[in-house]
Design the sequence.
């Protein structure tokens, strides 16, 4: 298989993965509803995405680096909204 096809495949897979976060980010942002979101899951996800970025750097894979960086941003936003919501609930 030619190398450019592998890159295209990686870009398509990464795009699908990253776009899967968009509905969750929008719901948490608009509605502030983070009750069902697991803090532990998003912390674990952030660690995993960080490790994938390191792996991507080691193998020089643009799709791996790019989309895991995007996933760090999305997962970070969701986790921040969850933490903010948790603090607000504790203050009440």
Sequence:
């Amino acid at each position: 298989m030619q190398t450019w096809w592998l890159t295209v495949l990686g870009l398509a897979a990464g795009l699908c993965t990253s776009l899967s976060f968009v509905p969750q980010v929008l719901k948490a942002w608009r509605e502030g509803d983070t009750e069902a979101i697991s803090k532990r899951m998003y912390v674990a996800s952030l660690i995993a995405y960080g490790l994938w970025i390191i792996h991507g750097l080691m193998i020089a894979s643009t799709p791996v680096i790019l989309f895991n960086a995007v996933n760090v941003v999305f997962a970070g936003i969701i986790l921040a909204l969850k933490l903010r919501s948790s603090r607000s609930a504790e203050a009440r």
